[in-house]
Write a structure and sequence with these properties.
Glycosyltransferase; globular
C-alpha cells in the first residue's frame, strides 16, 4: 500500500503520471507543553505533516519508524524517529483530534510502531510530531516530511479548478507621483524611481517586479522576486525522486505572488497557479487598484497600491462573508529569489501559532540592495519564511487574521481595513564619530542589518536569511549587537538572548545538540563552537544585565559551564575533544569553525576562545552568587594561560599552531585567525603577542598578501591532504578552506593588533575589509560562492553570505561608535 505522505508524482516517471489529486505540506509551529509533557521547554517548535485531497480519502494507519533527522553537518547524516504523534482530521471549520500514538526507541528498533486509524474518511489529515528519538522536544522538518508513513486509499481522479483572470479596466498612469516614472507593458505596469521599482500584473493580483536602492542611485533593474515558470524543474538531488515540475512540488504554495487561501478542508481556490477568483484591475496615475472576490474562500479583497518615489502605500480591505478557518491565508504574499539576495524580515516574533509571525513594525532588509520599513497598525500581522529547496524567501501580510495554536488561521467575518506603508529607509542603530573613515561608515550604514540575520521562522540568528542556524555565529553577532541601540522591532541584543534560549532549551543547530551517532552531544566534537556559544552568552548577560534571564536558566547555564570545564580531561587547563583526535591521516572533521580541516584533541582556536569565555564568566558568576564555580573557572583560566604557549607556539614559524593532535604533533599551516584569537586574549602575554603578530604580518608579506580587500586566507601554507577531513581534497590553494580568502571572523585581527599596540595594522585591516563590505563585493546571493574567494577574486565558497563575514563591523563599532 502506498505511503500517502509521499507525493504520487515524486517519482522519476512523473512525466507519464496523471495529475495529482493530493497536496502535501509540512508546517513548523510554536507550541507550549501539553499536560503530560512535564519536562518540555516553555516554548518550542514542532512540526506537522499534512495531506489534503480533492475528494474524500480513506486513512487506515500511521506507521512510525526511523527516518532522516535534523542535518547538523559534519558528523554525518542524522537519523531520527517520531516518539509522540497527534493525528487530527480537518473540516471546513477547523480540526478535531482523532488519535495519538506514543512509542519508544526500543519499539522502533524492533520494527516500528503503528497507529490504526480505522478507515477514517476525510479530505485533510495532519500528523503533529511532538517528540523525537534524537532531537527530543524539537522534532525536525526532515523527520515530519519523510519519517512518517500514512496508509490508505486515495481517489486519484482530478478535476480542474476555475481559471479566473481579472478584468482590466482603465490603465492610465498619467500624473504619476513626483519622481516616479510609469511604463505600461503588454501584461503589467511598472513604476520606477531612484529608490525603488515595483511592477503590477494587470490580469492577476500580483507583483511582477520589485527592487530597492536605498542609496537612491536608480539601480532598480534587478528583480528581487522569485518568478518561476510553471514548468520549472526542481533541482536534482533535492528530493529522492530526482526532478519534476515545480508546480507539483509540496512547497509550491510558497511561490505565490499576491493573495492566498487554502482551507482546512482541502479547498485551494487561491494560490500558486490556482485562480478561483474574479474581479477587476484599474490603474490611475501611480495607483493600482485590485478588487477581487474569491467565492471558494468567502473572501473579497480590495487592494489599492500607490507608488511614491520613496515608498509604496497600500490601502487594504478584507471582506469576509462568514468566519473561515484557513491552512494558509495572505492578503498579500511576496516570494523572493534568495539566489539574488537572502532577504530578512526583522521584527518582534509572536512565538505563537505558525512560526515566522511578526507583530508591530518590521524592517525588511535585502542585503546589497536596501531596506523597507513596514508599518500597518493593529490589524496587521507579517510573516516571513524561507523555503530552501525552491531558493525562495517569503513575506506575507495578514489582515484581520487570528493565528491559532494549531498553526492555522481564523478569518473572522466582517470588514477589516489597514493602511500599510513600505518605506525605503536606512535604519540607524549606532552613532558614529566624525572621524570615521568613509569605507567604515558606508559598511556600517549599508550592512549593519546584514550582520543581524535573525530568522523569524526559526527565532534565532542564522548564517543569513535563508540559511541554517549556527550557535557558534553568536560570538560575532553578540560582539556587534552589544554595540547597537535597541528600538521597537529592532532588538539585536534581545535576539541574541532568544537565540541562546533556544540552544539552552535543546534545539538543534549546526554542530550543536544531540546526535544519533552516540550518547554524546555535538558540543563534545565541535569544542570551539561550544566555546563561542558560551562567550556569546556571557556577553549577552553582561550587556543586557538580564538577571531574570539568568535566574530562569540558571541550572542549564551552570550545566553548560560545568560540561566545558569537564572537557579538560588531562587537567592541564586546556580542553580536549576525546572524539575528534586531530591525527594526520585519520581524516576526521574538525573541533573548530573550519569544519573540514582536522582540528582536534587540543585545539588552539577553541582554547583561545575559552580563555575569553572564562574571563567573561568569572565576574558574572560572582554577581549571581556562584562563588565556588567562579573560583573553579578562575583556576581553569590560569592553568589554560600557563599551558597555552608551551602547547601551541611554533618556534619554527613564530606563530601559534592550529592544534596539537592526540599523538603529540603540532599542526601549523599559518592560520591567521587562530593566531589573532590567541593574541587578542590573555592566553598570550602582550609582549609575546606583539612578537607573534609581527611574525604574522611578516608571513603575510612573504606570501604576497599586501592588499586585504579580498579578505584574509584561512591558511597561508597548503594544508596537507592528511590534515583534511573532507570536501577540499585535491583542490588548489584558494579553494574554500584550502587557503580561501574571506572576511570571516576578522574582528579578532583588529582586536589582536590593537591589544599589541600595533594600531596602524589594526586600522589597515579594518578599513580594507570594510571597503569590500561597503561595495557589496565580499558576499552575494545564496549559492553564489562569494563568501570565499581565490587570490584573483574567483568565488570559491558555497553559501554566498555567512554572518561571520561581517564580524569586523564589531571592531568598527567598538572603535568609532559613540553612545
Amino acid at each position: 500500500m502506498a505511503n500517502l505522505f509521499r507525493h504520487p508524482l515524486a517519482t522519476p516517471e512523473w512525466e507519464s503520471e496523471p495529475a495529482a489529486a493530493v497536496r502535501l505540506a509540512t508546517r513548523s509551529l510554536w507550541t507550549a507543553p501539553l499536560r503530560d509533557e512535564t519536562t518540555a521547554p516553555a516554548r518550542r517548535i514542532v512540526h506537522q505533516r499534512a495531506i489534503f485531497t480533492s475528494t474524500p480519502a480513506t486513512f487506515r494507519g500511521l506507521h512510525l519508524g526511523w527516518g532522516p533527522g535534523y542535518h547538523k553537518c559534519a558528523s554525518g547524516q542524522e537519523r531520527d524517529a517520531a516518539l509522540d504523534v497527534v493525528v487530527s482530521r480537518g473540516e471546513r471549520d477547523g480540526w478535531s483530534e482523532v488519535a495519538r500514538i506514543r512509542t519508544s526507541a526500543g519499539e522502533l528498533d524492533d520494527g516500528g510502531a503503528r497507529l490504526d486509524l480505522g478507515g477514517l474518511v476525510g479530505t485533510s489529515l495532519v500528523a503533529e510530531v511532538r517528540r523525537a528519538a534524537t532531537d527530543g522536544w524539537w522534532p525536525g522538518w526532515n523527520l515530519a516530511s519523510a519519517g512518517l508513513e500514512l496508509s490508505g486509499d486515495l481517489d486519484r481522479s482530478w478535476t480542474p479548478g476555475p481559471d479566473g483572470w481579472l478584468d482590466v479596466g482603465e490603465v492610465d498612469p498619467t500624473g504619476a507621483s513626483p519622481g516616479v516614472v510609469a511604463t505600461v507593458g503588454a501584461t503589467d505596469v511598472v513604476f520606477r524611481s531612484d529608490h525603488l521599482a515595483v511592477g503590477f500584473r494587470l490580469k492577476s493580483p500580483a507583483w511582477s517586479h520589485l527592487s530597492v536602492d536605498q542609496n537612491g542611485d536608480g539601480r532598480v533593474e534587478t528583480n528581487l522576486l522569485q518568478l518561476p515558470r510553471s514548468m520549472d524543474i526542481v533541482r536534482s538531488g533535492v528530493y529522492p525522486s530526482g526532478v519534476y515540475p515545480v508546480l507539483r512540488d509540496q512547497n509550491a504554495e510558497y511561490l505565490t505572488q499576491g493573495p492566498r487561501f487554502a482551507g482546512t478542508d482541502g479547498a485551494l481556490p487561491m494560490g500558486f497557479l490556482h485562480r478561483g477568483y474574479r474581479g477587476r484591475t484599474e490603474v490611475r496615475g501611480s495607483t493600482v487598484r485590485y478588487d477581487l472576490e474569491i467565492p471558494g474562500a468567502h473572501q473579497r479583497y480590495v487592494l489599492e497600491f500607490t507608488v511614491h518615489a520613496d515608498r509604496i502605500e497600500l490601502a487594504a480591505e478584507r471582506h469576509g462573508a462568514v468566519d473561515r478557518r484557513a491552512w494558509q491565508s495572505s492578503a498579500w504574499h511576496i516570494a523572493l529569489d534568495n539566489r539574488i539576495t537572502p532577504s530578512c524580515a526583522l521584527g518582534d516574533p509572536t512565538f505563537t501559532g505558525e512560526t515566522g509571525l511578526l507583530a508591530g513594525p518590521v524592517t525588511w532588509h535585502h542585503p546589497r540592495y536596501g531596506t523597507f520599513e513596514l508599518s500597518g497598525g493593529d490589524g496587521v500581522l507579517w510573516r516571513s519564511d524561507s523555503v530552501r529547496p525552491l531558493d525562495t524567501n517569503t513575506l506575507e501580510l495578514k489582515l484581520g487574521e487570528q493565528p491559532t495554536g494549531f498553526g492555522d488561521y481564523l478569518l473572522p467575518a466582517g470588514v477589516h481595513r489597514a493602511e500599510v506603508t513600505l518605506r525605503v529607509a536606512t535604519p540607524t542603530l549606532a552613532r558614529l564619530a566624525p572621524e570615521t573613515p568613509d569605507a567604515v561608515r558606508r559598511a556600517l550604514e549599508r550592512h549593519t542589518l546584514t550582520a543581524l540575520p535573525f530568522r523569524a521562522d526559526t527565532a534565532t540568528y542564522s548564517n543569513n536569511g535563508a540559511s541554517m542556524h549556527c550557535t557558534t555565529s553568536l560570538a560575532d553577532v553578540s560582539s556587534i549587537a552589544r554595540e547597537l541601540d535597541q528600538r521597537e522591532g529592532l532588538r539585536p541584543l534581545a535576539w541574541v538572548g532568544d537565540s541562546l534560549q533556544r540552544w539552552l532549551d535543546g534545539a538543534p543547530s549546526y554542530g550543536s545538540g544531540a546526535t544519533s551517532h552516540g550518547a554524546h552531544r555535538l558540543e563534545d566534537e565541535y569544542v570551539h563552537m561550544a566555546g563561542n556559544t558560551l562567550l556569546a552568552m556571557g556577553r549577552y548577560l553582561a550587556a543586557s544585565e538580564d538577571d531574570a534571564w539568568f535566574d530562569r536558566n540558571r541550572e542549564r547555564v551552570l550545566r553548560e559551564l560545568d560540561e566545558m570545564l569537564a572537557r579538560d580531561v588531562d587537567g592541564d587547563g586546556l580542553v580536549e575533544s576525546t572524539i575528534r583526535r586531530g591525527v594526520a591521516g585519520e581524516h576526521q572533521w574538525s573541533t573548530a569553525w573550519a569544519d573540514v580541516i582536522s582540528f582536534g584533541w587540543k585545539d588552539a582556536w577553541a582554547n583561545a576562545v575559552l580563555c575569553v569565555v572564562w574571563t567573561e564568566w568569572e565576574p558574572l558568576l560572582r554577581r549571581h552568587g556562584e562563588h565556588e564555580r567562579a573560583d573553579r573557572i578562575a583556576h581553569a583560566r590560569d592553568a589554560l594561560i600557563s599551558a597555552y604557549l608551551p602547547t601551541f607556539f611554533n618556534p619554527a614559524t613564530g606563530l601559534i599552531g592550529g592544534w596539537r593532535s592526540a599523538d603529540g604533533a603540532l599542526h601549523d599551516h599559518g592560520f591567521s585567525l587562530v593566531v589573532a584569537q590567541a593574541c587578542a586574549s590573555d592566553a598570550v602575554p602582550v609582549d609575546r603577542a606583539r612578537e607573534i603578530m609581527t611574525a604574522l604580518r611578516d608571513a603575510w608579506d612573504a606570501t604576497g598578501l599586501d592588499d586585504l580587500r579580498n579578505g584574509i586566507p584561512l591558511n597561508l601554507t597548503r594544508i596537507p591532504e592528511d590534515d583534511i577531513g573532507g570536501v577540499v581534497f585535491g583542490l588548489p590553494m584558494g579553494s574554500y578552506q584550502q587557503g580561501g580568502y574571506s572576511h570571516h571572523g576578522a574582528r579578532v585581527l583588529v582586536e589582536a593588533f590593537d591589544r599589541c599596540g600595533m594600531h596602524h595594522d589594526a586600522e589597515r585591516v579594518l578599513v580594507e575589509l570594510c571597503a569590500t563590505i561597503a561595495d557589496d563585493s565580499s558576499f552575494g546571493g545564496v549559492g553564489s560562492g562569494r563568501d570565499w574567494r581565490m587570490a584573483d577574486g574567483t568565488p570559491s565558497g558555497y553559501e554566498g553570505q555567512l554572518v561571520e563575514g561581517f564580524s569586523v563591523l564589531a571592531a568598527a563599532l567598538a572603535r568609532y561608535g559613540r553612545p
